[in-house]
Every structure is written in structure tokens, then in C-alpha cells.
Amino acid sequence: MTPTTPRLESVRWYVVLVLGLVYALNIADRYVVSTVLEPIRIEFNLSDTGVGWLTGVSLALFYITVGIPISQLADRSNRRNIVAVAMGLWSLMTALLGLTQNFWQFLLVRIGVGIGEAGGTPPSTSIIADYFPRDRRAFALTVYALGLPLGAWLGSNVAGQIVDHFHSWRAAFIALGAPGVLFGLIIFLTVREPVRGRFECVDPITEEKTSLGETLRFLWSQRSAWHINAAGTVICLWGWGLMYWTQTFLERNYGLTTAEAGARLGTIYLWAGIAATLATSAICAMPQMREPKRIAWFLAGITLCSTIPSFVIYWTHSLWVATLMLWIVVPAIYLYVGPTMALLLNFLPCSMRAQGMAISLLTANVANLIVAPLVVGWISDTLAGPLHSNAESLRYALMALSLTGFWAAYHYWTSVRTYVADGQRIQLTAATA
After folding, report:
1. Directed axis angle between helix 390-402 and helix 292-315, to 10°?
2. Distance set, CA 431 to CA 79, 182, 386, 418 (Å)
3. Are 323 and 425 within 8 A, CB to CB?
4. Does the chain have fewer CB atoms within 10 Å around its N or its C terminus?
């Protein structure tokens, strides 16, 4: 194991900072779509289902299609280069969204965004896993996850202000996409590719490269990893699925403008998200939390306690109550990211980490970019006629989705049952690699 020195520590945290900013821009480029969902729907004359296809499904289909091949490449080659190229591609495509003039142009460019974003998180988290030993990964990846609330704030508050200032939803895409092209170059020039498997006693030269089939079989055999992945998938369906539609919900039900709804949500995303992520990183750094089962219990409890408030957000007719509940629920949506990534990575060999993370992101993105936009949109469109209101129909659709939080908590709780056996299998795998 490489000894820790002040210089090594500074390099480690620089990498976390830079990759965290990559994550922030990734999230911002996603959230800006939710912020301008209603103006896009109105201009292109779409139903709720149609706008779900255009903005969510188009991204997800190509994200998940190319995500696995890119992750396989990341488990075999230079991950830093993949992140740098992906960053430049999705940022350029995001900026180009601001130049589209119709449904089909937007759809094609949105596909390009999905292809680029597929090369972001899997190699980034794999890089961080090779900069930190096993018992410090939850802390490091939780700090990395600060990019989530920062990106959400950029994509909601800042984007909303840009839309109102320029009186155009297209300006938000251009403003948030253009800086990422330059940032990709910064990654290429300043981030160093770490030795793969340096903390698992694996020889990177003689280590066998694993196929996707081997990774899938191993993931299935690791029941802990399976339930952790299931929990992360369902919590994305619950939390990110709700947030995908919440901006539109506030605009329709309370008459807020794009900037007003974006500022309200963006402020909550930024401050509640950062506070929750920092608190979680501090908790994960405690000696008592170095046991993976304690982290899983913590996540299960937080998700369970946040599900009822998430229902109240859409049940109430009071903007004040809905806002208060958002301050309670949003932290739960953000704090799970780093610890869940760390739990999953700890139960996968280093040669499978990027592929394992890509599989996790595949299922998560199916949930929050395909299932949530389409199912919520379909329920809303179906109920709009009988209720004579697309505001009330969206309310009922989101109340139904909110209850899936209980399902996510179940998987976190259940994952603990096989931690000991699965942890021993990982150690054996590393020792015989």
C-alpha cells in the first residue's frame, strides 16, 4: 500500500474536487431540462408523455446503450482521458440544444448529450476508488457527491434566472454547456491516472480483464451488491423522478414563473443538499461507520423517514407546506449518492468497478429518465380529462410515485444480511487475482 504523505493527500483531494465539479456540470446539464420542461412542452405543443419522451427517454436510451461499452473501456484503459473527452462532448451537445428549433432537432442533440454523459460517472468513481483505501471511500465519494447539489442549483436557480433575463429557454442550455468544453481540457492536463487496484494488492500488469458477462454474474452472486444496486435504482426512481417533475408541478399548481420556481427549488437543492452531503461525509468519516452495515442502516432509516414528507409535498395545496416538506425530503435525495457508490464499489473487484458502476447507473437511469418521465406523464395525461386539469392530474401522479421510497428503504435494510460472506469473497478474489 502506498504510504500517505501530505503531497499525496493534496493530490487525492484535488482529484476529488475536480471530478466533483465534473459531476456538478453533469447534473446541471440534466437539471436545466427539468427547469425549462414547461416552456419546451408549450412551444413544441407536447403532452406530458410526449415531453417525457423528448427530454428523458432520448437521453436515457443512448446513455445506457453506450454506457456499458465505455465502462468496459474504462476498466482496461486510461480513465482520465475518457472523462475529459466525455465532458467536452456532453457540454458541447448541451450548448447546441440552445440552437435547436423543433422536436426532431432537440431529440437528436439530446441523444448526443446522453452519449457524452455515459463517460462521466463510472470512470470518475473508479478513479477515486484507486486514490483512496477501502475504509475511506465512503467519505471521499460523499465529498465528490457535493457536485450533485451544486449542479442542481446551477440547473435550477441559475438557469431559471437566465431564462427570465433573456426570455428564452434556449439561453440556459448555451450558458451551462459552453464552460464544460474548456473544463474537459483542464481535466486532461491536471488529473493523473492512478494505478488500478493499488489498495487491493492486485498487480495491474498481470490482472485479468473481466468481461461484462463475468461482471454481471459476479454482481448477481454478491447479494449485498445486488440489493445495494436495487436500493440505488429505486431511490433514483423515487427522488430524482419526483424532482424531474416538481418544477412543472410548482408552475402549474401555484402559478410560479420559471425563474420563481427555479429559485425556490435551486435554493433548497444548494443549501439542503450541501448540508446533507457534508453531514453525511462527517458521519461516514466516524470510526463507528467504517462497518458497511451501519452505512446501509443509516440510509434505510433516512429514506424510510423521508417518504411520508415526500407524499405531503404533492398532497397539500399550501405552497408554504410543500416548500417546508421539500426542505426535509431533498437532503435524503442527495445524501445517499456517495455512500451508495462506496458500498457498491466495496463489494466489487477493482477490475469490475467501472462496469459495475455503469450497470448501476444503467438501472438507475432507466428508473429516473425512462420510467419516471413516461409513467408520471402517462398517469397525468390519463387523469387530465376526468379531472379537467393537468395540474391536478400531475399532483396525483406524483403522489403515487412518492410512495416508492418505502421500497428503496427495504433494499438497503435487506442488503446487510450477506455483508460478511460477500466481504470475504471480495478479499478472496483480490488475494487470488
Report:
1. 160
2. 24, 42, 63, 20
3. no
4. N
Report yes or no on whether pTM surpasses 0.90: no
Residues 6+ apart with CB under 8 A from 388: none
Residue 357: how many other CB atoms lie within 10 Å: 26
Locus of grid cell 444480511: 417
- Label residue 54 by pLDDT band (50, 70, 90): confident
- Output the nine-digit C-alpha cell for 343: 458500498
- Report pLDDT digits (tens) over 377-402: 999 999 999 999 999 999 999 999 99
CA-to-CA dists, residue 49 to 33, 55, 239, 245, angstroms = 15, 10, 19, 12
Task: Select from 237, 247, 273, 224 the least CA-distant residue to 406.
Answer: 237
The three grid cell numbers given for residue 73, joined into one nine-digit string: 473501456
CA distances from 85 to 129, 146, 312, 429 (A): 20, 22, 42, 32
Q: 191-217 pLDDT, tens per residue?
A: 999 887 666 645 444 445 677 788 888
How far is residue 69 CA from its own chain's centroid? 19
Residue 276 sits at the vertex; the CA angle it makes with 236 and 8, to the nearest 5 degrees, is 100
- Count of all residues that appear for the chain in the document: 433
- Report how far residue 297's alpha carbon sits from residue 294's, in angstroms, rounded to the nearest whole number: 5
